[in-house]
Amino acid sequence: IGNYQFYGFDHITNITISESVKEIGDYAFCSTFISSIRIPKSVMNIGHSLFKNCVALTSIIVDEDNPIYDSRDNCNAIIETSTNTLIVGYGATVIPSSVEIIGDYAFEGYYNYDISCSIIIPEGVRIIGNCAFIGSGLEVITIPSSVKSIGGGAFTGCGRLGTVYYNGTIEDWCSVEFSDSSSNPMCYG
């Protein structure tokens, strides 16, 4: 399934991915009205931003026999198993405690006017990738003290983001590396 394959096909509400599919490209299902998706065991490569603007999405499941990806703990996300990197999520995703990295563009463009979007990042996550939540409807986020790096543009375009909780000390926060600037925007000197 190529990049932008079904982008903007707003009449699509259901997609079944064949067991012969090996790759799903960037933005493949953006702006469709699919409500659920199952990633078969045959898929070995997944692009980013698969479900941008898919406001009807309620379920993501990866076949348990897939050797590259999983959706452990019924998390409603796609996780790269070997690196514990959450690569695709959306508003109903519950980030498992075993995840160490929120990947680049992982939650890009998830926006639903009818649902308050709140994300709790569990302790153990070390990295929030570039543009991880860009353009999402995120309103509240909890960041654990285990986060050591926040990528460029991670929260760009999050116009509804009003509350950020940090579960660490001021010293911990001041040691977090921010990719879009030379220093943490809240710490000086």
Written overview of the protein:
By secondary structure, the chain is an all-beta fold. It is about 5% helix and about 25% strand. It is built from one helix and 14 strands. It has one helix spanning about 170-175, and strands at about 25, 35-40, 45, 60, 70, 80, 85-90, 100, 115-120, 125-130, 140-145, 150, 165, 175-180. The protein starts with about 20 loop residues before the first strand and ends in an 11-residue tail after the last strand.
Layout of helices and strands:
Blueprint: E1 23-24, E2 36-39, E3 45-46, E4 59-62, E5 69-70, E6 78-80, E7 85-88, E8 101-102, E9 117-120, E10 127-128, E11 138-144, E12 149-150, E13 163-167, H1 170-174, E14 177-178
Overview in brief:
The chain is mostly beta strands and 189 residues long.
Write the element-wise H/E pattern from the N-terminal end onward. Answer: EEEEEEEEEEEEEHE
Tally the helices: 1
Report the span from N to C terminus.
49 Å
Binned strand content: 15-25%
* Largest β sheet strand count, sense and barrel closure: 7 strands, mixed
Radius of gyration: 16 Å
Helical residues, percent: under 10%
Low-pLDDT segments: none
Overall pLDDT: 90
Q: What spatial form do the alpha-carbon principal axes imply?
A: globular
Annotation, overall tally of beta strands: 14
For the largest sheet, list the strands in their spatial order. Answer: 5-6-7-8-10-12-14
The SS-based structural class is mainly beta
